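Table S2 (text version). Query chain:
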Amino acid sequence: MFTFEVQGIRVRYADTDQMGYVYYGNYARYYEIGRVEALRSLNLHYKEMEQSGVMMPVYDLNCKFHLPARYDDLLSISVKIVRPPSVRIFFEYEIRNQDKLLLNTGSTTLVFQNIQTGKLCQCPADLQAKLRPFFVSNNEWLA
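Corresponding structure-token output:
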């Protein structure tokens, strides 16, 4: 299993609704921040993947609210990849505030798609190579 944590995401006034809570639609953005930074920690970049001809659209998103995030909270986003990728990659998220209170949990499934044909494709080899060490110890890697 691969895990990564992004710390120090400050909730801005523009992120909140009239009640002072983070507007629910912003959680998908927080998930994206966590996902992009998790891949960046492996020296993988969406921009380079897209330039190589593969994009990763979101196929599924689940979100559960436990407590509200509020204006000026300092958030941390924990990201997990719990199983090896194939034509899909599954991410799990936990968002906590500066007091370590669990505010939100969620998950996204993204697919690998050939930009030119629009057809699904296997996870790029460079991403497989970077993730393999996190799964081989448990004999989880299929390829």
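Notes on Table S2: The CA atoms of residues 29 and 35 lie 10 Å apart. The mean pLDDT is 94.
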